[in-house]
Amino acid sequence: MMTYRLKFRDDGLGCAKEIEFDAHDAGTALVIAQREVSGRRAELWESERRLCTLRREGPRGEIWRVER
Q1: What is the CB-side half-sphere exposure of residue 63 using CA atoms within 13 A?
Q2: Which of 32, 54, 55, 68 is deepest in the core (most CB within 10 A)?
Q3: 52, 44 in Cβ contact below 8 A?
Q4: Which residues fall within 8 angstroms of residue 19, CB to CB, at 6 or more apart?
Q5: Is the pLDDT score of 58 beyond 90?
Q6: Sequence spans of domains, the chain
């Protein structure tokens, strides 16, 4: 298991916060992140390495925007 973190900035939609969790791999981390990232931008980190920036978009949040 690896330790992952979602980092949110204070963006006018919500306060800055970090959520730390364990997952088997980055794919599983994205599934977990799905519950937390809704309309806000977040960075996904694996230990001390930033993997990507995430944002859920679309009328129902059904589209993932993943940027490196």
Answers
A1: 5
A2: 54
A3: yes
A4: 5, 6, 8, 36
A5: no
A6: 2-67
Structure tokens at 17: 């916060």
Neighbours of 4 (CB within 10 A): 22
Top pLDDT among 54 and 61 is at 54
Number of other CB atoms surrounding residue 63 within 10 Å: 10
Model pLDDT for residues 10-38, shown as the tens digit of each residue: 888 788 999 999 999 999 998 888 887 77
Task: Determine contact, residues 20/32, Cβ cutoff 8 Å.
Answer: no
Contact 8, 18 (CB under 8 A): yes
The residue with tokens 């589209």 is 63
pTM to 2 decimal places:
0.83
Q: Which residue has the tokens 């794919």?
A: 27
Residues forming beta bridges with residue 18, ordered by sequence position: 7
